[in-house]
Amino acid sequence: FRTISRLSLRFALGVLVLSARSSEASQEDVQLTPGQRRVIDFARTVSVGASKAAEDELRSSFDSTYFRLRLASQGSGRGHVLASLSADELLSRVRGALAVVEFTNNFGLDAESLKLHPGLAAMDLVTVEAYGNRLPSMWDLKSVGSPLAANVSANQWGVQDAAETGLYLLPDFASPGHPTAQEMAERPTYLAGNLRRLDLGVQRYGAMAAIVRGDVVKQRAVILGSDSGGWESGCNMSVSPVVKPDSMEKAAFVCDAVPSTPLGVVENQLHSLLANSRTFSRVGGDLPRVVWQLLGEKADVRPLEGNMYTEAALMGPLRMVDVKVLVGSFPGLFGTALGKLLRSFCVKHQIPLAWGFGAGRTWPDEEARTFVFLPLEPEEFWTAGHERLLDPLAGWSSTNASGFGGNSSSEASWDKVWADVVSARAGQQGSLRSSSSSGPDKDHFSAWWATLSGSGPPVQPLGGGDCASSDLCFGTFDSGSRSKECVCRTLPPPEPNSGIVEFSV
């Protein structure tokens, strides 16, 4: 028994109260269709036995010489600590990590992408408000003839429909290719299971990552071993892919792992983890590697591995009340008009805003370095479990830890860095740019990040058993006491829908 400080006790009680209120607040008015409910109920049933069988397979794998040696070699030998654990202890830690793994929905362009492609349509915060403070699915956009869905090809719709009926077992459209609005409303919103614990989720999908509340995923989502669209395009020969994969791309993935594995749910997803590791085993994403990234402190992640997520189909709407924190790209949005809009949006809707360092480069710069996305690339690594920084104006105030990080000293420090980044992006500090860069370089983003890290406690992502609830809680921080404190969103009262009210920075 450990003595609990008064602050720790207050936080613990607060987390329990948040947990007790959260399920009622998030689900009371969500009505699922019979088809959606059948899929969830079926997944709950079949996942019990599938996950249980996966336990035995995982124990056997954990005890193998190959697994032990490969795990020990991870992180230049730092993986030896995990490799020294018994199979049962490793399994317990994996199960704990999966219980709190983040499920994210990335959306929105960063400032440089918008500058390079000014006519490119993408989901943004204005869209979110226009749809009643929720993130619409592609089918939602199609059903109302949104310009955001206008350029989606027939092949893309076909891939999505095949995944939702063939892999997720949702009902077929009565008239294939001509769904009704009611049928489209039954289709899911996609989430990425963040097995690699990346602070910005799946960066190629957007500069903002909505991290979905734990109870929402538990109650309304089913899990697949990998990206369903990728599987349909690369493995399902009866579907016309958006981009036809070449022979090398086809050979890179193990196609039988996903369709042969039953759907999972949050409480039972060990078999989904196994399917993921099998699918990507030929390109470096095998079981020892994903266990290292799931459990290892500051584990390394190759850029290609950022695409090796499990996928969840969320039934029903993804509303802002279903989100526990919004994470903005520090290189992509901080010190920009879009970043200012993000701060205003989070203040208005009382959603905690955190900043993620990601790759330390704007996405156009990172994406242009195509060689780093090769399998087994040995030089470029992102960081699993990288800390995030809660915004002093739009972050801490919407959490149970509102007394931290938002004082006048920290705000002054953030204002100074914000102004420096604005100046650098405008080209007034030309030394910060290289000739091939579309923005300040990684060294300068690192320096700015270090300055802000010293002005308030960084937030570490949740680990297994960190907090009493993973519904609204999204991380821990050092409050100066002897134990870590949980930081969780506090839900606001229901609000009317109106425009974003901006504030000056």
Number of domains: 1
Q: Unreliable stretches, pLDDT < 50, 5 or more residues?
A: 1-26, 501-505
- Categorize the overall geometry: globular
Number of separate helices? 20
Rg from alpha-carbon coordinates: 22 Å
Q: Strand count, sense and closure of the main sheet?
A: 8 strands, mixed
Structural class: alpha+beta
Helix content percent band: 40-55%
> What is the strand arrangement across the widest sheet?
5-7-3-1-4-9-10-12
Tell me the span between the first and last alpha carbons: 47 Å
Mean pLDDT level? 89
Percent strand: 5-15%
- The total strand number stands at 15
Signal peptide: 1-25
Protein name: Subtilisin
Keywords: Signal
Question: What would you say this structure looks like, in words?
Answer:
This is Subtilisin. Keywords: Signal. It comes from Polarella glacialis. The chain is built from 20 helices and 15 strands. The protein is α+β, with helices and mostly antiparallel strands and 505 residues long. It has one domain. An eight-stranded mixed beta sheet has the order 5-7-3-1-4-9-10-12. A hairpin with a 5-residue loop joins strand 14 and strand 15. Helix 3 packs across helix 15. The longest helix is centred in the first third of the chain and has 29 residues.
